[in-house]
Amino acid sequence: MKEGKPYAELVTKAEAAANAIKDPELRRVAFERVLDDLLSGGSTTKAMATTPPPNTVGTALDKGISIGEFIRRLGLKKHTDLVVAFGYYLEKYSGATEFSPADINRCYYDAKMDTSNTSQMIIRNIRRGYVMQAKPGNSKGRKKSYTLTNTGEQFVSELLGAKV
Known about the structure:
Layout: H1 7-18, H2 24-39, H3 44-50, H4 67-74, H5 79-92, H6 101-110, H7 118-128, E1 131-133, E2 146-148, H8 150-163
């Protein structure tokens, strides 16, 4: 820790830097990253400039597109297709290696869309060959998590290519 900077002042700066993040878990992670940077001698400005924001669904990400914009650009209407597109967004834009039905429901919420029976849509996409269950060792305490297959990735990639 830098000499002359009391710990409480650094905590206050880290809290201020992470305060804009609405999701409590992501805010905690951002707070920890900023505080670690401050304790190692960085500044809040430097920490926020060099540390990418925690990836959240529904915020502008590395390509500057929210989940809602992403789905609207694709023009999908069927919930089975939407679930594949949400999975693609989570894997390609949010950096997730797998997703759960709860993650998909959060995508619906962030895109301001009505949900459907997400678990049933995932099962249908497994039958279509677009989604598969993730390896059990990868899921972090979740009951079931899923990932897109190559076919599922190609499905969305082709839609993106046609819309670009």
